[in-house]
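The freezer alarm interrupted the setup, so I double-checked each line after restarting. Inputs confirmed:
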Amino acid sequence: MSARVQAEPFDLAVELRGFGAGAGAVVTFTGIVRDDSGHMAALDIEHYPGMTERALTDFGAAAAARFDLSDWRIVHRHGRIETGGQIMMVATAARHRRAAFDAADYLMDWLKSRAPFWKREIAQDGSASWVEARSNDEDALGRW
Amino acid sequence: MSARVQAEPFDLAVELRGFGAGAGAVVTFTGIVRDDSGHMAALDIEHYPGMTERALTDFGAAAAARFDLSDWRIVHRHGRIETGGQIMMVATAARHRRAAFDAADYLMDWLKSRAPFWKREIAQDGSASWVEARSNDEDALGRW
Amino acid sequence: MTLEVLYFAWLRERVGHPRESVATDAATVRDLVAQLAAQSDGHAAALDDLATLRCAVDQKLVDLDTPLAGAREVAFFPPMTGG
Amino acid sequence: MTLEVLYFAWLRERVGHPRESVATDAATVRDLVAQLAAQSDGHAAALDDLATLRCAVDQKLVDLDTPLAGAREVAFFPPMTGG
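Predicted 3D structure, all chains:
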């Protein structure tokens, strides 16, 4: 049961070592920098130190209570991440499959629009533009 | 894009090496032997060699087409698996989160009631009993 | 025709063996089930409940009314419990 | 009171710096926004669109009508894009 914000890459295998002992179902989600335009070099992710850790810990605790998780983990990176690099991961462990899936989905919805991260796309020519929030990310919270 | 049936344990980290290159979202599900009764020692999983591989490959291909996956993997074990051991995993890679989540969920629904595996619970006293199919596993397919 | 018939899980246990070659004129899976059920008490017990009986013809899941013409391998088993 | 005010993402770029200490009598976040927007063209541009403006008081997300009594740190930023 932990949340971390870090510049360094993470290793899913290391994060899952000993994760969810006693659970029946473990779900992981990994977000990866994707180049949709064909011109992107990297993402640069700004965050709000202090608030970020607090928000992620609150989301994890809320998910654990709601879905009766036996374990959860959130790792989110900040700073520059090249195309193809991992941005973040969540892992959830529960007795049953449905709870593990739903909890991971729930955490992602909260991360997308309530965790203080801001993505900037860095193009191959060095120009940068802030990623705009999508209204359906906000709408997604209405599901829960 | 592969399905495997094996007696040996698998290592999620090894399975994910190079998995989903170019995707934006990777979801994994891992099923673990859970002792609900407090008396269980292991699961023993029987399968239908030949048909199993075919069924898993068909499910994977169907999920790939339906959810536009860039990659998928299914590994399912057979034989004796001690409590706490991994039973199976699916991994899905897609451009977007929703597709990766839904595809993993879809594959699990199919695996649960259409892949030729039969679980037997081995109690600590050596007695064995076949796991009964749950009607909601069957119902779950109606979602898709 | 001669079919290779396979049994899995508790059907296998009740029949007493995992496979057998069966000479049959059965037109459908349902006809074959009736023929097999008459073969022994174990077969009868294994094939008793048609509502929960699952069947594959040449390794594809089918229902009981599937024709057997051209089939080589027929498998019977209880509802699956994988995943 | 004196508040520590933080800006993130393109709000930070428009304001020109990431944080500042602000002496204020503002009763609510909305009052504070009005005071800050009058401070410079950069502030005005950053705080222009109240519909998309997001705010945290002492590191908790709040809406614009939240009272500032007892607050120490107020942050302004655009809609978040994590995950």
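Quick read of the result. Chain C is about 25% helix and 30% strand.
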